Amino acid sequence: MDIVLLLKAAILGVVEGLTEFLPISSTGHLILAYDLLNFNDEKGQVLEIVIQFGAILALCWEYRAKIASVFGGLAQKAGSRATLHAQPRHRVHACRGAGAAVRECDQGALVRA
Question: Would the pTM of this model clear 0.85, i.e. be above it?
Answer without folding.
Answer: no
